[in-house]
Amino acid sequence: MSDEKEVKKEENTPVEDEILEFEFNEDGEEDLKKTLKKLREDLKVCKKEKEEYLIGWQKERADFANYRKREDDRKAMFSEAIRERILTRFLTVLDNFNMAFANKEAWEKVDENWRKGVEYIYGQMNTVFEEYGVKEIGAIGENFDTNIHQSMELVPTEKKELDHTVSNVIQKGYKLGERVIRAARVNVYEYKESGK
């Protein structure tokens, strides 16, 4: 009886039923050549399917890795854009500080303790900008560059060496890393020979 139970267990295994289908010849004997041929064909089909599944899995894995990279890049760009937008908004505050400091006569009349407090706040803001990689651009005497300067007015000069250099900075410009977030507004010297 125990042999019968074992045979029944084997018969109920569907995998074995599919794999071990033997063909028999007229005498009822197993035709091993046909069975072997069929097994080889089944093996070829299985290998082909395995390759298709493997290639499909590898493609999906590569697609997912590319998706994650694009998503990380998108997040970084979004974060950078938000940071740039916030910092750009605070540039107006720095401009107001600079305008207040530019009027030396009025600034000197302000109470000294209050003036020191305002200068301290200005210093803190500059420190924050430095921590985020924001740098000032545009200085008197540098060559005019359309990438970092915006020309507001041409100032005639008789000195040839000053031609196309910055004569005055009207509003400071700023870079975030290597990217210009605001061009410097400047006046530019233009050489004109005297008498012409």
Question: What features would you highlight for this structure?
Answer:
Protein GrpE; 3-stranded antiparallel β-sheet; GrpE; 3-stranded mixed β-sheet; alpha+beta; stress response; GrpE_CC; single chain; elongated; 196 residues
Overview of the structural elements:
- By secondary structure, the chain is α+β, with helices and mostly antiparallel strands.
- Among the domains are: 71-132; 136-196, Nucleotide Exchange Factor Grpe, Chain A, domain 2, CATH 2.30.22.10.
- Helix content is 58%, strand content 18%.
- It is built from five helices and six strands.
- The protein has helices at residues 2-11, 14-19, 32-102, 104-109, 112-131, and strands at 134-137, 149-157, 166-171, 173-176, 179-182, 184-191.
- The strands form two sheets. The chain has a three-stranded antiparallel β-sheet with strand order 1-4-5.
- A hairpin with a 2-residue loop joins strand 4 (173-176) and strand 5.
- The longest helix has 71 residues, at 32-102.
- Mean pLDDT is 84; it is low at 1-17.
Q: How many beta-strand runs?
A: 6
Q: Based on CA inertia axes, which overall geometry fits?
A: elongated
Structural class comes to: alpha+beta
Q: How much helix is in the residues? A: 55-70%
Q: Could you state the order of secondary-structure elements as H and E?
A: HHHHHEEEEEE
Low-pLDDT parts are 1-17
Major sheet characteristics: 3 strands, antiparallel
The average pLDDT is: 84
- Radius of gyration, CA atoms, in whole angstroms: 40 Å
* Fraction of residues in β-strands: 15-25%
End-to-end gap: 125 Å
